[in-house]
Amino acid sequence: MAELVAAVPSLLAADQADQHYADAVQTAVAACAADTAGQTCYICMDGNDEEGLVRGCACRGALGVAHVSCLARQAQVVAERTFVRWHTCGLCEQRYHGVVYCALGWACWKTYMGRPEADRVRMNAMTALGHGLFEADRPEEALTVQEAELSMLRRLGVVEERILTTLNNLAATYGNLGRYEEALSMRRDVYSGLLKFNGEEHEKTLLAATNYAGSLLFLKRFEEARSLMRKTIPVARRVLGESHELTLKMRGNYAQVLCRDPSATLDDLREAVTTLEDAERTARRVLGGEHPTTKDIEANLQHARAAALHAREDGTSASNPFADALLYLNQVKAEFGDEPEIYNEFLEIMKSFTSQQIDTPGVIRRVSTLFEGYGKLIYGFNTFLPEGYKIELPEHLREQLEAPARPAPAAAQSRGLHAKIGDLLVPLVPARSLRKEQ
Ligand SMILES: [Zn+2]
Ligand SMILES: [Zn+2]
Questions:
Q1: How far is the CA of 66 from the centre of ligand 2 (A)?
Q2: What is the average per-residue pLDDT within 306-318?
Q3: Do residues 125 and 83 lie in contact, with contact meaning Cβ atoms separated by under 8 Å?
Q4: Which of 66, 150, 163, 251 is 20 to 30 A from 311, alpha carbon to alpha carbon?
């Protein structure tokens, strides 16, 4: 294979690393600005200086705010013994996520890139960078790094298990790039490989099972997804515990399988709602309300409640109401891609409606006001209304119904259905569990 030749992609060129690191820190600091305002770094105790502060774990209140450079220094000190501080916060013991993880990924790569290729810490640094880029929604760059990593590992002839971990991460990136069939077959291989190497109780095997199920779900192979998850979730609950992030994600995904299957019954939808309510409570307690996993579970809970309500009012079993709800939510995202507060307010309204804090005329009023001027969205809301209620559009908005769908702006698309795929993935790159000694 051509890529086995040791060509360094320009993204990984040594003279570029400082710039990539500086850019990634700047992005992370900007994204965390509201969360870190008026705080100080818990490591050096300084306030908001030139570098700026970040927080991207499950720490809350005044905890966990730091400089990326301080987090990196802390990770470096113990790196020969354990790689854990490059990806997991020492205070809350939860993984870093999003752009903060990406900045740390660049810090990590910058620190170890000068070492020999076969150096274990350098290999892990490459994994961390690939995962960081994935986390920061930069799948093309993640792909570059992960493919380079894979060809390096093959060239070095490392154990198959290590390669499976890289394939697992690569599959997640394929998924985010829309290469679903490739992602699915890669994930099947990773799962069966890890099952053989580590057995069904190992965290990495459970992770691989979850990712494989996510791919099946995305490709609408509901039966297979359901049976795989029924087999693996009880193992996760027993071995990892109820409050482990992976257990929470697995349960969240299982609820999605229940909701999306067109043959889902009302009982399935109710089971999905109960599962998500329970997972949401635990996620809030363990990970905090700002954590992406908590937010995913919350959003899925809103969808599931809407679907259950819709099915009940319909008096039928679900005719895939979840898909309708999802489609609608994606339209909202597409229209208001650069105004997330509108999308969030819509979710709030749905929450009040499904928990019956506001009645049907009330929800019609609020939705019509929120989406004022957007005929399609207002009319589309009819899908959530019980029998006997229908929103009729005023004359001047009716022509919008005939107009072809407005193409979603690129930003909205990446956060729409596409982002949904990311939610199904568990892009955990267990650099930690790569190491046998841990
Ligand atoms: Zn500091
Ligand atoms: Zn933390």
A1: 10
A2: 64
A3: no
A4: 251
Residue 84 structure tokens: 């854990």
Conformation bin of residue 373: beta by default, left when phi > 0, alpha when psi is -120 to 50: left
Residue ranges covered by each domain of the chain = 13-137
Question: Backbone dihedral region of 64: left (phi > 0), alpha (psi from -120 to 50 degrees) or beta?
Answer: left
pLDDT tens-place string over residues 15-25: 999 999 999 99
Ligand sitting nearest the alpha carbon of 73: 1
* Tens-place pLDDT, residues 138-177: 999 999 999 999 999 999 999 988 899 899 999 999 988 9
Summarize pLDDT for 175-215 with one digit per residue, the tens: 889 899 999 999 999 999 999 999 999 998 999 999 999 89
Ligand 2 centroid from CA 2, angstroms: 42
Taking the centre of ligand 1 as the mean of its atom positions, its distance from the CA of residue 50, in whole angstroms, is 11
Ligand that comes closest to the CA of residue 41: 1
Closest ligand (CA of 42): 1
Ligand 2 centroid to 99 CA: how many Å?
15
What is the model's pTM? 0.65
The bound ligand whose nearest atom lies closest to the alpha carbon of 58 is 2
What residue spans of 240-339 are helical by DSSP H?
245-260, 266-286, 292-314, 321-335
8: DSSP letter: P
